[in-house]
Amino acid sequence: MTTNRGRKDVIRDRMAATGESYNVAARNLKAMKDMGATREARLIQRWQPAESLDVPCPCGGTCEPGETCDHCHARHLHVRRYPGSVTDVEIWADRYECTGCSSSYTLTVRLAGRPWGVAETVVQGGSAEEVVRARVFPGVAHPLLRPEAPETPEED
Length: 156
Ligand SMILES: [Zn+2]
Ligand SMILES: [Zn+2]
Hints:
Elements: H1 4-18, H2 22-45, E1 76-83, E2 91-98, E3 104-110, E4 117-124, E5 129-136
Antiparallel strand pairs: 1-2, 2-3, 4-5
Helix pairs in contact: 1-2
Bound molecules: zinc ion (2 copies).
One zinc ion (ZN) is lined by residues 57, 59, 63, 78.
């Protein structure tokens, strides 16, 4: 987490380098950061499960070893990762499937600094209530939220 002061220094550096105004420099820096985070979030999600337990998990080694199955005593394998919260963008869910039977389970993991989207506080409705709303990075599949898509007319 960068402090506000650190962030302002980065913006001033960019202003000095590019001659942009404060607001333009801030917007461009944010866009660059979002783009990098988007690319990383897609990589966190896009991998194929390992073919056996003898090779390192292709998710990048950020998962727990699969547990031994209670039913068939084979091991579980990490098969999928997807956003695991609708408001906390660093929470991911890991799905494990047994290599010997149809048993499966899901673990929640926090990947600090590797968000699947951006959490924003928005003021809602007439009561002016502040709520946290998460925006999913484009290209990331969220089981409960839709990614931000370019505006297209609804066909129905
Ligand atoms: Zn894994
Ligand atoms: Zn099993």
